[in-house]
Write a structure and sequence with these properties.
The structure is a homotetramer of 405-residue chains.
Chain A: E1 6-9, E2 13-16, H1 20-27, H2 29-32, H3 54-74, H4 81-93, H5 102-105, H6 114-128, H7 134-140, H8 147-153, H9 159-172, H10 181-187, E3 188-191, E4 194-198, H11 202-220, H12 223-244, H13 253-259, H14 272-279, H15 284-294, H16 300-310, E5 316-320, H17 326-340, H18 344-347, E6 352-359, E7 369-371, E8 377-379, H19 380-383, E9 392-400
Parallel strand pairs in A: 4-7
Antiparallel strand pairs in A: 1-2, 3-4, 5-9, 6-9, 7-8
């Protein structure tokens, strides 16, 4: 049976599933579950088109991997069919460990990084598919000698970033985030088993970095998005607290497991399959239906927060380059506590602060390497005559109910 | 407070909310609920990008309404601000009566057409917003003397169609469905209070009709989409049956009301608000979380169907221009009943047939009218020298589990 | 030396020159000359973006040929490297016989069809490139047993049409002419050495035919374009007449050869190279600079027409479905003759009529063939349930100076 | 007569000509002449789609001006109809002083800056249109008190730049040059009669600056483009030299005037109309047909250079960050002189060097101003936390015939 399915993708036109094993993986419930996890969590509250899923992103990254491999092979980089297949599998599954609302609830539902979970999923699938994922796992873990294969999956210019910047720009409508992914991919090369970019690609890289920076501040760290995601975290914290105090909360069975237990990855020890079994049942639908149930819960904090999210009555979010003064925050806390008539202990669910940061380009680790026509290789920070800054930009936010101040 | 908010839309760039009352309506939970109802139900099972919502469509149609009004005014059609506002409200709310999975479960959850519900919603909002929707409702019901305002909301060339064809093409990636909406809108005019199209727009209209036809067969009535939507209907039928037989089923509170009662609109009589209250709590999330719960239900039919949908193990769908013979269907029923070891009474949940039809252009009612330079007006069917056919194209489908035949 | 050059194309992104011989042909002055011949003549007088050249179109068609070959090979159609290379050469050169202003002055500068000239050019290049074009010429002449290779170059679904519809839509901005070329190409297959389209492509073909029809009436046969092209022909006719009467006209040396001789292809007999030598020097620049010179010529007809074109003071163009009555035309002739104070003999340069026609789909020859899943092949006219009409649509035009009637 | 014509533009969709006087100006031969002057000279030798004209750019900038005025008015900036009309006229005509091959031959055909000529053209048109351009000229000369109107025509964020970056990206296919013009325009505001950008637009401005930088190095100063443009200048220099030495050269009458005279603007003194009369006859066609004639001229330098350009046999171009050493250049000169057997005096036509430079953002004059929510205004260089560099990037080029070294 020929499994070379073609999928319509508004971003790239048509995506071809390149290998039978990849097709079988796509069909597996673990991957199908990614259809129910939005790529960018609650970003659609600001950009209503941003409803695309981790599933779609996985297919997109797979597509770009195919292009990158084709380009490298045309430049006489040796990549065997086994390696190409393994890289395709690894990129398809690189985010499979994401749970509901992706980054928003990461570490909250269960205290573990999604990449760790991705690896567990892969190992689990490797058992199911009788070790066909061996090489993919090696590459994913960066244990394979052709480092560039890992760099295509995880690095400053990996197919993950390429696709998510493209895709998130496309679905948000923030066209300014569009990157010249096709040109960058055409400029990729390999030098000493490491991924490099040909000299002619320097301007495209600069543009890519600036587009990424813009996407961070205009989309991913948009203050309204930040605010509502923090509200969602507070809902979960409140729910856990109530459960511990013995309250009854209606959530789906799969979510109960995570609500009633404080889990870290260590709790599973050797019992990888139990964790995966529970985790693979979770998706955005569990969270949203819980929120809908919570809107009618008797705890005023839980229902207020849940209603606010469901009906999009969002909190006010202030964003600044410096931390908020204790006095300023204290004043707001005070007002909120008066208005809502709640004790100081509960105020943290309604007034919360934090910070987010982003670096346009990180010169500290694994710089993008530029390959010159004369064979020389130099880091991007020395190649661009524009001057790339590594400065960390940090912004502080403060959220609280509207109409209080 | 200036409520002229701008929304990023990947389809049109930027959408401006034109009036304060429209902004207030957009903010109302009834409209926000449309954020949780996908425009094209399960179409994303074939076109993974098609996750856009009724909310986004409502904003898009609102945007096009603004353009149409501007064009007509520039041609000296008189449209007062009150009328423009009313038309904007009416188009914003035209689909507010849609429930979970839009057309798929229409008449199934409750036996009523979504437009009837839209009207109830509008009346309800009219009470809340102190009669500010009076004129919008009149226009929506086609009771206003300037017929063209109603035709912009509901007619062969309404802003609803314009937007959904655009939007569905965009998010499915079926670029062939793209229509020249901007040109068609620029060609709109009014003659005797009716919407007409200037002569120069004839080719654009032909193209629009063919694009629409293509979208029907390639997207809306795509056999895989048809199949999975029918499966979903069977899940609901089975669930109702089980409930009547006394089984316990876990569904959200809002859905229980519809699961435990066989409702028609008559049941509500004068009690419009009760119906709206219950109905406005429903969205796609209720259905999907129920499906997820059902996957572990003890009834083998219910759990089999639910798992099939959730994990996308879809049924085989045959599509033909003629009805399937009784013999052919009988044979398949027999095989399925053997394979699944189920009684004849249950077979209707696993083997089901039906038909879908579409007319490229309906000459029977309300034809598109073409306005000639000499002032003459002729129906499109007489204007196009290509020859538009009104023939009804009907296709028959038959669905059953894969691997049986 | 690696000649795999990449060219930026706004229509397709990047075009790769696939073979060294193709690169060498692209570099040849005969092909470079196509950079100076606009694809759609004076269409830019209506659509100011339509300045793209035959050169760009040749590259675009080459690109699509590469895609088509890749698709067919993936369906196990055998195409050797030699055949692929020959098909690439043939499509690159298919329009090389076009002269200045493409179709507008075809048969006017010299009475010969451009395809005949294309063949002469190819034979000439075959001598230069030492018979490397043998197979390409065979395919171009449809003498090769794999008919589908010729059909990819010249047929109802050839890469020529695919590219020009795409490209002309793109540069005119008539987005409605956009076709689903990528989908159509993905649906191509071969049956009995003939090109066929898989069943799933039927709607795309319908859309393609309607888009083509729209492009004909909205762009190629747009009445203003028709008019100015006819004016250009009249300039040339007048110039020839004047030359015969002994007048002095300033034109470039290469153009003189064609101005002073009434040439048919027979005049060259065996002297192919002389014809090609002269013809290959011609391009749009010769015509436009002649026009500019003519604006100051003492013959009032010649200078009036030339000034009208250069300064875009276009004639009035009437377009109808029926021929203009003799009376109507007579009346206009009379008025023009009075206004311009010219004799009846000259009136034909200022008042002229003609007709243009287009068939949406020609069922009379070489129909598009549809390949069904069961292996059956049926012509498109029997496959589409929409009903494709073969009717010839004919329109009559009448042109004369503005402000006369 | 209603002159509100709509023009199809592939970049923006539809452009409406907003005023009768603007329509009349568009129709004037001076503006129509811009149809025959390519926006980016010989850039199409690298990017074959880049054939768009100054005419198209003028319409595009006019379109954006309309958008900017609408945005500013919606923010309660007072702009009267007279002012809007004047700004529209000024932007339409801002580049009307460009001659053949735009910047390439600027100062070469006649030693004057194109903006000075634009002003002369406007004054000339002002006479023709009976002082209807008075205010437009005032604004163009920055003599009007509402400075922002001038800044929309000429400044760091003027509609000229917005359009040319958009348009050049579009037609070259260098999508990375795409800027968020619509978002930037939506963020424009006025403070103390000066153009400012709202705080939310900072990232879009950064992106705009980087996109512009990329366009400079990847398109405008692309080394192949640089090279061929320098070759063209050498052709003209050689032609002038030969003419002075008494040689006969065939060029169009309009070009003769410039070939036989060494003109500066002072030569015209009060005789503005004579200059405009001669200059307005020039366009790209004069240069290309001359080149074609020159290919057969007996002077080997002139014919070699002309043939090289016409047949696109381009010179080798080296590009470096530091000047070329005298030794290196001397060596190449020597080789070229040997190979071509020409005297040292002639070598400057075949071996030539120079430099080009670009600044991503100029902090030295008229910085972009950012308007904060609290009413404060700060220059962009202090607003961006990315850090905008004002460093001048300079590159040195050296051109000589291929195959010599």
């Amino acid at each position: 049976m020929n499994k070379k399915k073609i999928v319509n993708d508004p971003v790239y036109g048509f995506i071809t599933i390149p290998y039978n094993i990849v097709f079988d993986l796509v069909e597996h419930p673990f991957v199908q579950r990614l259809r129910r996890i939005k790529q960018v969590s609650l970003t659609h509250y600001v950009y209503p088109g941003a409803l695309h899923t981790r599933f779609h992103h996985a297919l997109g990254a797979l597509h770009l991997m195919g292009q990158a491999i084709e380009v490298l092979r045309s430049k006489e980089v040796e990549i065997s069919d086994e390696e190409a297949k393994a890289a395709s599998i690894a990129i398809l599954l690189h985010d499979i460990g994401h749970g509901p609302f992706s980054h928003t609830l990461e570490h909250t539902l269960i205290n573990v990084h999604h990449e760790e979970l991705s690896l567990l999923f892969m190992e689990c699938l490797n058992d199911i598919f009788e070790n066909q994922l061996d090489l993919a796992i090696q590459i994913f873990k960066n244990k394979y000698h052709k480092k560039f294969l890992h760099q295509l999956i995880s690095g400053q210019l990996d197919m993950d970033r390429m696709d998510y910047l493209n895709r998130d720009s496309f679905f948000t409508g923030v066209h300014e985030g569009v990157i010249g992914y096709d040109r960058i991919i055409k400029m990729l090369a390999v030098h000493n088993d490491e991924l490099v970019v040909e000299e002619k690609g320097i301007y495209s890289i600069e543009k890519f970095l600036i587009a990424r920076r813009l996407m961070y501040w205009q989309v991913y760290l948009h203050k309204t998005v930040l605010g509502v995601e923090q509200m969602l975290i507070r809902v979960w914290q409140r729910a856990k607290k109530l459960v511990k105090e013995g309250a009854h909360l209606e959530v789906s069975k799969s979510l109960q497991f995570f609500l009633f237990n404080d889990l870290t990855i260590k709790d599973f020890g050797n019992n990888r399959d139990e964790l995966i079994n529970h985790f693979s049942k979770l998706d955005d639908y569990d969270i949203v239906s819980s929120l809908k149930n919570f809107t009618e819960h008797e705890d005023p904090i839980l229902s207020f927060l849940s209603k606010s999210i469901i009906n999009r009555k969002l909190f006010k979010v202030e964003l600044k380059n410096e931390p908020f003064s204790e006095e300023y925050i204290g004043n707001i806390r005070h007002k909120v506590s008066e208005r809502f008539n709640i004790s100081e202990a509960l105020i943290l669910y309604l007034v919360f602060q934090g910070s987010e940061s982003n670096r346009t380009y990180n010169t500290a680790r694994d710089e993008i390497k530029i390959l010159y026509k004369n064979g020389e290789v130099k880091p991007m920070s020395e190649s661009s005559d524009y001057g790339l800054r590594s400065t960390l930009v940090k912004k502080y936010y403060l959220c609280y109910p509207k109409g209080v101040v």
